[in-house]
Design brief:
Blueprint lengths: L3 E7 L3 H14 L4 E4 L6 H15 L4 E5 L6 H11 L6 E3 L7 H10 L4 E3 L6 H10 L4 E2 L3 H4 L1 H14 L10 H9 L7 E3 L13 E2 L2 E2 L13 H6 L3
Helix pairs in contact: 1-2, 3-4, 5-7
Length: about 230
């Protein structure tokens, strides 16, 4: 039932849109923000990152997500420019299953590399760990194999002292992160709130699941019925 720090994900929204979204998350007490980058030039990426930093101040963590859009050699070149920006991590700079490419990037960069949302089952995780493809891991509870898959992934990460965050599904992921010895960050999204009886409780940017049983998901059946086709 330990509180888990939450960050807000931001889309590929340009300089102004990204900064406005980041500022809104910071005002709500979120401890971190994660914009997508991968603009035409690294100068564009830096402009977004620095504008976000100005918007959220020095005490909010910034992660960035390249969404697999770079080849390894370009990723290495860009990360050399980003390494001075005090980013918490750079996510999926190259193709998700290019473990060797990610490992090469991780060796060259000083900013931590984050991967995991596209690992299907713990075998993918094991391949990534064997390749030393990332500094942190962020499994998706649906893709990794549900609760059982998550717990196996948690044990594998713990054995290598790797910090574990989640990809989406924040309601159940908050519960699972409380059971994860090396838990790190909760990726928050409110997409399911309209059909939940009790959305995930956030207090000052921390996910609080005290007293919440099971998966943490209970449906608002009347709301669900409104979306029935």
């Amino acid at each position: 039932e330990k509180p888990v720090p939450a960050y807000g994900g931001i889309g590929f929204d340009g300089v102004l849109g990204t900064a406005n979204a980041a500022e809104a998350f910071a005002k709500r007490g979120f401890k971190g923000v994660k914009p997508k980058i991968g603009y035409p030039t690294v100068a564009d990426d830096l402009t977004v990152i620095r504008t976000v930093r100005k918007a959220v101040g020095p005490n909010v963590a910034i992660m960035v997500d390249y969404n697999q859009c770079l080849v390894p050699v370009e990723a290495i070149a860009r990360l050399r420019m980003l390494d001075g920006e005090e980013l918490t991590w750079v996510e999926e700079p190259t193709l998700a299953h290019d473990y060797a490419g990610h490992a090469q990037i991780a060796r060259e960069a000083t900013t931590p590399i984050q991967c995991g949302e596209n690992w299907w089952g713990t075998l993918d995780l094991q391949h990534a760990l064997d390749a030393q493809a990332s500094d942190y891991v962020m499994p998706d509870v649906m893709k990794i194999g549900g609760v059982s898959g998550w717990m196996r992934a948690s044990s594998l990460a713990q054995a290598r002292n790797l910090r574990v965050s989640n990809h989406l599904w924040p309601e159940i992921s908050a519960q699972l992160l409380c059971l994860t010895p090396t838990s790190h960050w909760l990726e928050y999204a409110d997409w399911w709130n309209p059909v939940l009886a009790e959305p995930l409780n956030l207090e000052n940017g921390m996910a609080d699941v005290a007293g919440v049983l099971g998966t943490g998901v209970a449906w608002n059946e009347a709301a669900v019925a409104q979306y029935t086709v």
